[in-house]
Amino acid sequence: MALDKSKVAEGLKDIRTIYFGDKPSQDYMLQVQFPAPYYPKSIVGIPEGDQVDSTGLDALLIVIRRIISQLSSEFRDAKDEAVRRSEQANPLLRLAMADFVSTDKDILQAARYYALKAFYGGSLKDNDLSFQALAEHKLMQETFWQRDDLLLFNPETPFEVKGVWELGRMENILELAEHSLITFKTGNLSEQIAEQFGTFDADDIAYIKQAKPPAILRVQYDVSAADPKKFQDLRKIVVDMAHAERKPSGMWGLTEPGAALMTYRLIAEVCLSSSPKVQDTIRTYQAEGEVTPIPDSFPHHQTEPLGKANARYMLYYCYGVTDIPGEHLYSEMPPPFDRVKANLLYGILDGTIAEPHS
Q: How is residue 291 annotated by DSSP?
């Protein structure tokens, strides 16, 4: 197909339109549909310098869809001006709302090309197209991670100047979004997140860094050879999301330890590639903890357990219920029968298997 940016955008079949007003169906499709792999050489008109693969684009697309499916309808409201501006600036967010079944395969390929070009203005071959580079790119910070539901820290917070406390607002929201990425290697993840909150000083001004708290947490996890954390260690965390409160003395401070406990559950993990020739791989989970079967033929599906030696992961958590009966029995690997079903669905999406008729 000839490249035409506007026609590519028009050609994306929107899940929000197909399942209008039906959030459960939208959420389900966002979670179980996986696109055919990005193959730039199949797109007519791409300059030679842009005919390069991305190790992380497809995995990021899946992560965005998984996160959006966990949030309220307002986060994806196509009539909301902030949502529309974000999707225009970052076409990957618009693509994330596409139906992979009814959208033409060539359109999906071209849409991913335009999504990548929004990250980098020059030739794509000269840029880092890995998952981490794309996921933490300034474009993602400006259009996605700085949204209220995704900020770890509350911009509205008490300040103390010369003994007088007042409420103010941190102006650099982009910086807050960047700092909302938690880096973790060993120890207790929940405690390390809680340690981010407290009273700090800057330029003779005391301020309280308090939890937003977010609906989604994002964590960069570097596996420690001496103390590797596995799936059962990281599938659920309980974090003290301390927030500011006025004390009886009239001073401001954080809530008492343990007073603001919140449970977060792992919904996506990406094992980052160690080489430009190796794909970033992904595994996703339902909010209750069950793994989502990803078809074997999808090149970005993760087949190894979490916590591989010397690996780096990006982990994504959603706010969830405290306890689920039998949750300790959940495996990070899907049963063989579920993989068969996933392979069948993927064949339908890829056009290699006819969709069954009812």
A: B
Q: Given the DSSP bridges, would you call strands 181-184 and 216-222 parallel, antiparallel or unpaired?
A: parallel
**First-residue to last-residue Cα distance in the chain:** 33
Query: Residue 21: left (phi > 0), alpha (psi -120 to 50), or beta?
Result: left
What type of residue is 330? Answer: Y
φ and ψ at 316, to 5 degrees? Answer: -130, 130
How far, in Å, are 62, 73, 123 from residue 268 at the CA level? 9, 20, 30
Q: pLDDT tens per residue, the chain (358 residues)? A: 456 888 999 999 999 999 999 999 999 999 999 888 999 999 988 999 999 999 899 999 999 999 999 999 999 999 999 999 999 999 999 999 999 999 999 999 999 999 999 999 889 998 999 999 999 999 999 999 999 999 999 999 999 888 888 888 988 999 999 999 999 999 999 999 999 999 888 878 888 999 999 999 999 999 999 999 999 999 999 999 999 998 888 788 899 999 999 999 999 999 998 877 788 999 999 998 999 988 777 778 888 999 999 999 999 999 999 988 888 888 888 776 566 766 666 666 554 443 433 3
* Number of helices (H), then strands (E), in the chain: 13, 12
Query: Directed axis angle between helix 57-70 and helix 105-119, to 10°?
Result: 90
Confirm if 209 and 281 have CB atoms less than 8 A apart. Answer: no
Q: How far is the C-alpha of 188 from the C-alpha of 132, rounded, in Å? A: 23
- Taken as a whole, the chain contains a residue count of 358
Mention every residue, 6+ apart, whose C-beta is less than 8 A from residue 215: 70, 71, 149, 150, 318, 319
pTM of the predicted model as reported, rounded to 2 decimal places = 0.92
Q: Are 269 and 312 in contact (CB under 8 A)?
A: no
The burial of 240, by beta-carbon neighbours within 10 Å (0-12 exposed, 13-18 middle, 19 or more buried), is given as buried
**Which amino acid is it at 118?**
A
Q: Which of 36, 62, 116 is nearest to 345 (CA)?
A: 36
